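Running co-folding for S-adenosylmethionine.
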Amino acid sequence: MKKEKNIALEFDEFSKNYTSDMIGCVPHYTKLVSSFTEYLPENFNPKSILELGCGNGNITAQLISHFPNATFTLVDASAEMLELCRKQFKDHHVVFSNSYFQDFPFKEETYDLIVAGFSLHHLTNKEKQTVFKQINSALKEGGIFSYSDLMISKTNPDHPKLLKQWGDFVNAHFPDGEKWAWVMEHYAAYDKPADYTLQLEWLKKAGFSSIHLPFQKGFWVYLQAEK
Ligand SMILES: C[S@@+](CC[C@H](N)C(=O)[O-])C[C@H]1O[C@@H](n2cnc3c(N)ncnc32)[C@H](O)[C@@H]1O
């Protein structure tokens, strides 16, 4: 798979004010993070959890408070982001991998839960399809894959409307317009979102059953799929 060579450096820089920037720049960010624990089936008790693109650890922090005895594996291309996680989770059983998903050695039947928040839209459509297969094979039987993301392709007829609403949201938090300009620069350079209808097909092809969208506001989606 082709790698986005600069994404690690982009997120090293982004790590400085990451959470407040995400809350102000990503509609429903807090809900899309809390969804990772809110919508898990009752009595689901994962022992082994993998997060792809952990960033500064907001999703793992949620999961650790629910499943303190689980073993966590956190993967991220950004060394600075992983450093924030190392500090935050120093008292927990966490394995860190400073790696691109494309280089990460997914082992078969290893995890009960695999999560990804706002990280898979950095992959091309082909890479997404490959990683869905790797995720499926790395899950144990009955395991769950869940992810939050913007799920609309840039060619979708609704994309201009999405950009308008998104811009209004960001400008309401950062009225000087500079932050929205930065978001659009980042979006043009690094983001390759795909329609959720397409992703549902890819997930089925990768072997997932029972795929649903427990939270969806427009194209901001939290999706869950069972192996
Ligand atoms: C927008 S942040 C999301 C962080 C966190 N999951 C959250 O929800 O707040 C995306 C993260 O994915 C990482 N990332 C993006 N593409 C990646 C890739 N191909 N391989 C590894 N990490 C990647 C970035 O370095 C960044 O830390």
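Result summary
The longest helix spans residues 159-173.
The pocket of S-adenosylmethionine is lined by residues 7-8, 11, 22, 33, 53-55, 58-59, 75-78, 81, 100-101, 117-119, 122 (CB under 6 Å).
Job closed.
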